[in-house]
Amino acid sequence: xxxxxxxxxxxxxxxxxxxxxxxxxxxxxxxxxxxxxxxxxxxxxxxxxxxxxxxxxxxxxxxxxxxxxxxxxxxxxxxxxxxxxxxxxxxxxxxxxxxxxxxxxxxxxxxxxxxxxxxxxxxxxxxxxxxxxxxxxxxxxxxxxxxxxxxxxxxxxxxxxxxxxxxxxxxxxxxxxxxxxxxxxxxxxxxxxxxxxxxxxxxxxxxxxxxxxxxxxxxxxxxxxxxxxxxxxxxxxxxxxxxxxxxxxxxxxxxxxxxxxxxxxxxxxxxxxxxxxxxxxxxxxxxxxxxxxxxxxxxxxxxxxxxxxxxxxxxxxxxxxxxxxxxxxxxxxxxxxxxxxxxxxxxxxxxxxxxxxxxxxxxxxxxxxxxxxxxxxxxxxxxxxxxxxxxxxxxxxxxxxxxxxxxxxxxxx
Amino acid sequence: xxxxxxxxxxxxxxxxxxxxxxxxxxxxxxxxxxxxxxxxxxxxxxxxxxxxxxxxxxxxxxxxxxxxxxxxxxxxxxxxxxxxxxxxxxxxxxxxxxxxxxxxxx
Lengths: 413, 106
Ligand SMILES: Cc1cc2nc3c(=O)[nH]c(=O)nc-3n(C[C@H](O)[C@H](O)[C@H](O)COP(=O)(O)OP(=O)(O)OC[C@H]3O[C@@H](n4cnc5c(N)ncnc54)[C@H](O)[C@@H]3O)c2cc1C
Ligand code: FES
Description:
CATH superfamily of chain B: Beta-grasp domain
CATH superfamily of the largest domain in chain A: FAD/NAD(P)-binding domain
CATH topology of chain B: Ubiquitin-like (UB roll)
Number of helices of chain A: 10
Oligomer: heterodimer
Bound molecules: flavin-adenine dinucleotide, FE2/S2 (inorganic) cluster
Number of domains of chain A: 3
Distance between the termini of chain B: 33 Å
Largest interface: A-B, 32 and 21 residues
Order of helices and strands of chain B: EEHEHEE
């Protein structure tokens, strides 16, 4: 038998078995790639649907099996070698080798880095106590689900999508929830003020004790387990467990160490190529150089970038130009976003938030950049055309709900 | 046994045993059809699980599409009368023999 740590060679090595990595493997075969493919993933599980973690899976209404992106035998029939439970710790771009924690060496012809990110950890004192949870992986979520029956009071730190979705689940199962957000509104990084205020009202109406403008000073514990969250203002909030959702740190260390250009994410061109020959980077950890200068953390982006990279590897260079979209489910509220609102200078609210069916449209220099649509799939699908054509529209017409978005005349930018 | 037949975009027709209780989307995905992206995992947010119901067994009926499903389908350039989002259709014995076509990618 061949010892595991001998070098094996693959024509394409994909690092990361999440949304981006698994789609890269599938798209390579769809594009006719006939070489050998390895999908190396740190998690032990088959690639799965991550967004469900903070939604149906946490709520206990979806089994893990239903979250598999592809069934086990899919990978066999596509001749994709799944090397799971292996963490890549180093890349040698000269020898064209990736090295795992376990000391295995895999050489590559082409490499796609799709390692996503790790949750940003709390750094205040007490952040190493037991009873503090993050939601990024199935293992994270399972650890949290294990302790839920014994937790009555939950403090959530961070008012982004993950924290708010978790809050909605916890309220549904009757937990006491306090959500602490450092900024003056929730979703401040991704959504406009009307959306923030709407979600704040919804969560408060359902009994979430929402604390804005509140910085966590420290966590305190009893017998090594967290028991209180102390705010900078001095107040201490009792907590059986603490759930933290304050963003991610892209997993790019080995790639940067190998010389890839980038800092908070690896910089990639329109074909998802890094500055290192034959190494691509996609998904949550990739930053498009010619885009808005940010990493986009969404399933759509990971999936579409995967397809772009796979096609490029197969010699079909098609620049990444997909329209970004995103969704979030909280309570009975479905939010769908299309476009990126970065740099918006005005906002139109279409419909009445009190009706719980409305949209917020973001404009820059009079052109439509993005929409956040709450319980309004029609605005979402029609809004996509406005985003795609950077439509210039009279704001009063956008706000007029007696007309559908596709009935309004516009000029393309 | 309850069978599902799927017509891929190249016109080929493939039949397999469906799993009762899973959605049509999950059945198609699990049978290895990678043309169906189903990016939102079945939560009625993306419309990338768009299919045509080509043939429905006599006496079978499908759940009426929700307003959300109808509105999402309206956004597809390939919408037809028999368009459905496959994540919204639970598969059961009465649907055995159903023929589904995968809609073109928008
Ligand atoms: C709780 C939660 C809810 C979300 N909800 C939504 C939503 O509603 N809608 C939406 O669009 N997006 C949502 N997202 C974001 C979405 O899941 C990500 O954008 C998407 O998963 C990114 O795909 P990726 O392939 O870049 O990374 P991931 O899916 O994170 O996959 C990366 C994989 O690489 C592995 N890995 C990391 N480092 C290494 C290494 N060195 N060696 C080997 N393997 C490694 C990781 O273990 C992981 O399995 C959510 C994310 C979370 C955490
Ligand atoms: S899978 Fe997204 S709408 Fe069906």
